[in-house]
Specification:
Elements lengths: L12 E3 L8 E9 L4 E9 L8 E5 L2 E8 L7 E2 L5 E3 L2 E6 L5 E9 L17 E2 L3 E4 L8 E4 L4 E3 L2 E10 L3 E4 L5 E2 L2 E10 L3 E4 L3 E3 L4 E3 L5 H22 L8 E4 L5 H7 L4 E4 L2 E4 L3 H10 L1 H16 L14 H21 L1 H16 L19 H19 L1 H14 L5 H10 L4 H12 L9 H4 L5
Parallel strand pairs: 1-13, 2-14, 20-21, 21-23
Antiparallel strand pairs: 2-3, 3-9, 4-8, 4-12, 5-9, 6-8, 7-8, 10-11, 11-18, 12-13, 14-17, 15-16, 15-18, 19-20, 22-23
């Protein structure tokens, strides 16, 4: 069984949205479990200028018409020689109305035997018992930045959803409901995820578990672990985790292949943590303790870190991945040290360092980042967090905590100078910042990223 590793927010770039100026999506979506049919009429308001003239929609969905908010037809291109962005076609509109409405329909294969050739976050997946649409699948029209080749990543929403054959419905950031029809809304910008299924719902003090029957002791262990991480983050970040995580058991469309290979797949679209493996087994591991428990704590803590970096703060631009994933992984190390002890934290740090040392290509120095593509998977999940740990070793835990809180309120870090400005406001003087830059950052060096050099960072 493979380890549960933090998943990227999506294969494609994401344009900025969020906060009080969030884009807003409204309308209706209709789904059928038996036929794989999807119908939608969705309107998007408050689009920033850079994404006002185009939208991305899953390649299996056919656009019937595009209108403005009053129902007046809007000319659009994308049928012939279409732009492609991952799983989606890109459509351009000849004018940019204040409200853009898209009517669409499509149908997808249904795999009741769970024998699909593949399944991943970008699939609009029907397995006979459930329908799963994550944000990467572009199941809603997503405003698109043609210049940056980036989709809008998050939107506030008010949607009327029905799912023929479903026992329950769930949208990311809203409470799950029993029934095949519901109205869902979130004033907070969220990555759009929809799940409808036939399984049970379990609610505990700190988590909701969807689509799996979980023993009470296992559910309680999971709830307790989430509560402990939330308590630590409240103290460390100075703000509580306002979202309650939802753990979703998803039977993958290719579950037969995964079971045969002994592989386990998970992704997070905060506050949803979706797993192809058993949520109950996660609870059992947390009950049992030991190093396996430490791994689960680290994973859960990473995903909960996305409440701060990904929900409250979402910085566009070249440092997007560093601000999204490296910060969340740094927080997870801090939480693991607090909950699992120094030995657990050092084992985790050693694993990150091993990945960095095994990476054969040079890293672009953090102070020279001009393109988000420079911050690849190893960089964002392993090298970046170790850089943050090395900064903490230089300046101490109190100033590092102030720096993380400063990043949370900065919201728009695009340059190295922006990062330095946040550091200065956190009490990190220019000499200390330059000492860290020259010793640990310059030339993408790795001298500060070994376990021994990190030592026991401030606790």
């Amino acid at each position: 069984m493979s380890a549960l590793l933090p998943a990227a927010a999506g294969a494609q770039g994401q344009a900025a949205s969020g906060g009080n100026g969030a884009m807003k999506t409204s309308g209706t979506v209709r789904v059928s479990l038996a036929t794989g049919r999807v119908e939608g009429r969705v309107c998007i308001a408050d689009r920033p200028a850079e994404v006002a003239g185009a939208f991305a929609l899953n390649a299996g969905l056919n656009v019937a018409r595009v209108t403005d908010g009053d129902g007046k037809a809007v000319a659009f291109d994308g049928w012939y020689d279409p732009g492609i962005n991952g799983e989606a076609r890109v459509y351009t509109v000849s004018a940019a109305p204040a409200v853009l409405c898209v009517e669409y329909v499509g149908a997808y294969p249904v795999y009741p035997a769970h024998d699909a050739p593949d399944d991943f976050k970008g699939v609009m997946a029907f397995n006979g018992d459930s329908a799963r649409f994550a944000e990467q699948s572009a199941w809603l029209p997503l405003p698109f930045d043609n210049k940056a080749k980036a989709r809008a990543g998050t939107m506030a929403y008010a949607l009327d959803v029905s799912c023929e054959g479903c026992r329950f419905l769930y949208m990311n950031g809203s409470a799950a409901i029993i029934g095949d029809h519901g109205r869902f809304s979130s004033a907070t910008a969220r990555p759009p995820l929809l799940f409808g299924g036939k399984g049970p719902i379990t609610k505990t003090a700190n988590v909701t578990i969807l689509n799996e029957t979980v023993a009470p002791a296992q559910a309680d262990a999971l709830s307790a672990a989430v509560g402990q991480v939330a308590s630590y983050y409240r103290d460390y970040m100075g703000a509580p985790v306002a979202d309650q995580p939802t753990f979703l058991r998803m039977v993958a469309a290719n579950q037969v292949k995964r079971d045969r290979e002994g592989s386990e797949w998970a992704f997070a679209t905060w506050p949803t943590i979706a797993m192809s493996g058993s949520v109950g087994r996660v609870g059992a591991t947390l009950q049992a303790g030991g190093q396996a428990r430490d791994g689960r704590i680290a994973y859960i803590a990473h995903e909960m870190g996305h409440y701060y970096f990904g929900t409250l703060a979402r910085s566009p631009g070249p440092y997007f991945w560093f601000m999204l994933e490296s910060t969340a992984e740094f927080l997870s190390i801090k939480a693991l040290r607090a909950l699992g002890g120094e030995a657990a934290a050092q084992r985790h740090i050693a694993g990150l360092a091993a990945e960095v040392n095994g990476h054969t290509q040079p890293f672009v120095a953090l102070d020279k980042i001009t393109d988000g593509a420079s911050i690849g998977g190893t960089y964002r999940y392993h090298y970046g967090p170790l850089l943050l740990l090395s900064l903490e070793r230089q300046v101490g835990e109190a100033k590092m905590r102030a720096f993380l809180r400063g990043l949370l309120s900065a919201r728009n870090v695009r340059t190295w100078a922006d990062l330095q400005g946040v550091a200065a406001r956190a009490g990190i003087d220019d000499a200390a910042w330059e000492r860290w830059r020259s010793t640990c950052v310059a030339d993408g060096r790795r001298v500060c990223q070994s376990q021994d050099s990190l030592g026991k960072t401030g606790r």
